[in-house]
Amino acid sequence: MAQTPKTTKAVAGKAAPGNGEGGKSPGLVIPLAVLTLLAAALGGGVGIQLASTVEKSVTEKAKEKPPEPEAPPLRYADRDTLLEALKPIVTNLAAPSQTLVRLEVSIIYKNGALTNPQLAAAQIREDVMGYLRTLSLSQIEGPSGLLHLREDLNERARLRTEGQVDEVVIQTLVVQ
Questions:
Q1: How far apart are CA 135 and CA 16, in angstroms?
Q2: Are 139 and 94 in contact (CB under 8 A)?
Q3: What is the pLDDT of residues 61-81, one digit of tens each?
Q4: Does residue 4 belong to any structural domain of this protein?
Q5: ω into 66 cis (within 30 of 0)
Q6: Does 96 share its domain with 142?
Q7: Do residues 117 and 109 lie in contact, with contact meaning Cβ atoms separated by under 8 Å?
Q8: Fewest Cβ atoms nearer than 10 Å: which of 2, 138, 149, 166?
């Protein structure tokens, strides 16, 4: 047992290899710090360059903004036309007979074409009411039904006014 303390003293006197100053080698700390600073500087430089490139491209695209598409010209903008609103038409349909329709329309005509626009509007309103009473609900359903109704109303208005009315505009159509 006497030999055990001698070996312990000898081992305790020697320093373990690579265990200097808290377990870090002084030759490795400085290069790591330099590489970290170098990486931070390069990353910051690349970030600044990318930000300026993006900013430049955004300002160029803002300057190159394509012209906005022009709105199509209005159909009656170049002519001297007037709009006459008819009184609302409320009537029932032929089938089913308890179904009511409320229709608000206007007529478009050239200025001076109709000698008495209110009289023409009243006659067209009467024709439209008679025509609506002959329709069934299935005839005015959907987009094609509305298109056919509009064409029929235009034809009736032109016949009544001998071609003086340019168009009948459906403003509202309520079926209940």
A1: 107
A2: no
A3: 888 877 778 888 778 776 788
A4: no
A5: no
A6: yes
A7: yes
A8: 2
